[in-house]
From TrEMBL:
This is CSRP3 protein. SUPFAM superfamilies: Glucocorticoid receptor-like (DNA-binding domain). It comes from the Eukaryota. One of its GO terms (biological process) is cardiac muscle contraction. Keywords: LIM domain, Metal-binding, Nucleus, Repeat, Zinc.
Length: 194
């Protein structure tokens, strides 16, 4: 049937959406008043919407319904959620302490592997996390440990050199490991043999 003079159909109420009241999401049009989370009915905007196929949710309800499940996947840091998800149509089983599932995952996720195999800084020996990691000499370093081993100068990619697993600034490297003799900046005179 042709759509004479009207706009697209609303993804929630199926009525005509005119341009002045239209919000588009995931290739579909909605009235501003119909742009609500399908679970909790909270008003949405471009920063709070999460779409799944033809459904729209707030990020909290989307995470509860389609996000990872289990201990450690709560709503905030250190949170263990007791939300069963019944209001979202979820059927989460409440297991007894003696579950038939093994206590350690048989196929750990990339995140779990990263938490176990955290890189160690060669200078201080402590864990190096992604937010503070600088690569040098093929190894991960803390930003604060990324210094010359001799003079302690802070290093950058433009002035770093490495030797035997240690980092040096170009000046200290040249003085200690560079070529020696006339014309190399190490000696200004040739000593005469007597």
């Amino acid at each position: 049937m042709p759509n004479w003079g009207g706009g697209a159909k609303c993804g929630a109420c199926e009525k005509t959406v005119y341009h002045a009241e239209e919000i588009q999401c995931n290739g579909r049009s909605f009235h501003k008043t119909c742009f609500l989370c399908m679970a909790c009915r909270k008003a949405l905007d471009s920063t709070t919407v999460a779409a799944h196929e033809s459904e729209i949710y707030c990020k909290t309800c989307y995470g509860r319904k389609y996000g990872p499940k289990g201990i450690g996947f709560g709503q905030g840091a250190g949170c263990l959620s007791t939300d069963t998800g019944n209001h979202l149509g979820l059927n989460l089983q409440q297991g007894s302490p003696k579950s038939s599932h093994p206590s350690t995952p048989t196929n750990p996720s990339k995140f779990a592997k990263k938490m176990v195999d955290v890189d160690k800084c060669p200078r201080c020996g402590k864990s190096v996390y992604a937010a503070e990691k600088i690569m040098g000499g093929g190894k991960p370093w803390h930003k604060t440990c990324f210094r010359c081993a001799i003079c302690g100068k802070s290093l950058e990619s433009t002035n770093v050199t490495d030797k035997d697993g240690e980092l040096y600034c170009k000046v200290c490297y040249a003085k200690n490991f560079g070529p020696k003799g006339i014309g190399f900046g190490g000696l200004t005179q040739v000593e005469k043999k007597e």
